[in-house]
Structure formats: C-alpha cells, structure tokens
C-alpha cells in the first residue's frame, strides 16, 4: 500500500489501495507526451478484485435499498466536493477543456442522485383465493464493468449508479488511455462505500479479455466499439455471463427546410463536434434539405473556422485534441482519403502543431457509400448530405448497421414526430441533441448494442426476475 502522489493513483481492491507490480504510461493528448503512469493489473490483481467483490456481495445485497440509495448519495457529494481536482486530472489525460471536464464530473454526481429516484418493482402476476405470485428483482451478482476513453467518468457512473443501487458489486476497468480519473475517484470513495463493493483496476490491452474470461463474474456491462462488443459477447458465451453492450453509432440528423438557420446552426455544430466529435450519440451524418443546404453548410463551415481548438488546460479552448494516437491516425486517414478521392473537404481553423489535434472538418455532400459516411469516424470529420424528400432521407438514415440515436429538426413538430417513429434507432431527439437522463433508457438497436443503460429499464438490466408462489 502506498499513499498517492499527484498522479500516482492506486487501484482500489477490497477497500485497500493497491499499487500493483507493473505500470502503463498515461499520455497527455494535448502534448503527445507521457505525464503519468498507472497500475497495470495482472491476473493476481484481477483475482483479488473479483474475490473482494464476491465477498462484499452478500452484505451489499442484504443492505436495504434505501440505505444503498443513501450511500450513493454520499458518493455523489464526494464527487461534487472534489470536482475541481478531478476535472484537472480528466483534462490532462482525456484532453477535453477544463470547464467541460468539470461538467462530466458533476454529471456523474447527478447520475448517482438521479438513479435514486427509481425503485425496484415487485410485480404481482396472480392474486387469487388459492395463491399469490410475486415477481421480485434480485441483483445479478458481481459485475465486470468495462468503459471507453471518450466519457471515462460519466459512462463509468452510468454503470456504477445502476449496478450498486440494484445490490450488485463491481470490478470496473477504465480504458488504458484514461485510467487516472476513475482510479482517483475510487480512492476518494474509500470512506463512503463498504470495502469490496466497488473495485477499480487499471491495465493494458490484456486486462479486458482477462476480465471477460474470468469465471468469477456474473455479468459484463460494456461500453465501447461494436468490434470489441462482438468479442465480449463471444467470450461471455463460455459460461453464459449476462451482458449489456453499449456500442458504436452512426447517428443521422435530419434537417428539414423550415428550420431557422441562425437559431439552430450552433446547436447542430455542437451536436456533431462536442468532445472533438468523440461521442457515441454525436451526429455523424447530417442530412440537410436541398432548399437550405448551401446556406447551412456555409454557416457550419463559418463556425468550424472560428471555434477555438487547443490545449484543454488553456482558458478559451472549446475543443481539445483527439484523445489518443491510434484514433488520431485513423481520423487523419479518413480526412486524407476524402481529399485523395477528390471530395470537397471544408477545413476549420488552425490547430496546435503539438499533440493529437485535427481541424474541425466538414465534407460537402460526399457519395453515400464513401467511408466518411458509412463508418463511425469518432473524430472531427462530419459529412453533410443533401436530400430532397422525407421518404428518401428516412431510407438513407436507416441504411446503417448501427441504430443508436438520431435527430429531426423542424418547426413542424407533428411531422418531426412522424419521422422520428420511422427511424430505426433507440433514441430520437426533436430539435435537440446529445440528451440523456437518469430516468430514460439509452438502448442501441441493431449493432449499436444489446440491452440498455439508464432509466428503470437500465436498472432492471442489473437484476434477475425471481418468482415466488405463495399459497393462501
Ligand atoms: P474499445 O472497444 O476499443 O474499448 C472500450 C473498452 O474495452 C476499453 O476499456 C478497452 O480497454 C476494452 N477492451 C478492448 N478490447 C477488449 C476485449 N477484447 N475484451 C474486453 N475489453 C476490451 O472502444 P473505445 O475506442 O475505447 O471507445 C470508442 C467506441 O465506444 C466508439 O465506437 C463509441 O461509439 C463507443 N461508445 C458507445 C457508447 C454507448 O453508450 N453506446 C458510449 C461511448 C462510446
């Protein structure tokens, strides 16, 4: 056990600080330089974390629901009280500018409180003179939670808030690209959560597969790419672990001709580029009606040219770097390919030379089958696509293996709702974007996921139904 220095955060296993025997590097993406290291959990560390979570499970499960809710409320206060310190760690490892990083920490605290508004239902499926049949919801057991680097804290708390409230215990693994904020949070929560209820371990690429193969887990809750989701589903099959998969998206926004361009342009822009476009539910294909196409394209390009992109530690930066080198290379490759194919690439303003920065980039009406349209870029390149009729745009929007979310923009709300019902996605926003609440499920349709998070549906994913037949 060691006391932590500024960024030398331990893992939290069974209520203990554990430094581990090996390290991984953590890079500041605004500089492209290693600024910290984190524990690289080995099989023995994982075994210890699973053992601790298993040992804590009976006690936490037996803790009254209201008491668990209270404990999570206390955890929310710890996040809020330490939001400035956590935001700084977040920005240094993730890249997102400080003010927005703090929003994520406070958002996670809000989730811990918001989930507490749910209660677990008991369904009575029969109540006759002979018997009463009750269906209770019981926790699944020990959950392996695996999260990505784009929202490393909020997406962790989407899992923690539901799973712990429902009475499960957890071993959580942040992304190797962004381990520090969650390691620090677990350390801060040592005084609040009973030992073993939440264990946080970090590690390199080997750790995720080690977790999904571990027989000590009852459920895997995963957020990340569709490719990894498929591997996890295969791995979970060996002993039929329950799974929830929140995967990739290629969300379409449909902009009808009656919108007020001055009113919507900036919100549309942020819906695509917030967090440097590294959001599962970001607009990744923007379908604009032909009557307003040129005018809206020019407005969006105007915004791309003036929006400040820079180191998140500098005041005034609105957009940070791409979070990691492989992703930077991938998105840069898409940008280069678009140019090589002779597509019209509309580049944003200048970006710093150092670090993983890319200009906020639009592609002017590329062919529907180009990679920039069909693939999830997950970086600052957005195709603008021209359409002329509702039937045509609905068909094009639905022509994707993904089905995460989408948006319709129009002054005619009835028409927008009618279009929303025709989109094959788990969420549709009308005249808004990037919205999610603790009370509302986010469910990936098609290859965007299995199951859902948030809302009562999300809470129930961390439970199993248990029927009890009671004679009278
Ligand atoms: P990723 O799939 O590469 O990694 C996600 C996590 O899985 C990381 O912690 C990683 O270490 C781990 N991992 C990688 N391979 C594994 C394996 N074989 N077994 C177990 N764990 C493994 O995803 P990423 O690049 O970190 O995140 C970006 C992707 O996440 C995008 O596709 C994005 O759309 C998606 N995402 C989805 C949601 C959602 O709610 N649907 C939210 C955010 C991000």
TrEMBL record:
The active site is at 246. PROSITE patterns: ALDEHYDE_DEHYDR_GLU (PS00687). Residues 22-467 form the Aldehyde dehydrogenase domain. It holds the Pfam family Aldedh. CDD domains: ALDH_AldA-AAD23400. Keywords: Oxidoreductase. The keyword Oxidoreductase applies. PANTHER family: ALDEHYDE DEHYDROGENASE-RELATED (PTHR11699). Belongs to the aldehyde dehydrogenase family. This is Aldehyde dehydrogenase family protein. It comes from Spongiibacter thalassae. The lineage of its organism: Bacteria, Pseudomonadati, Pseudomonadota, Gammaproteobacteria, Cellvibrionales.
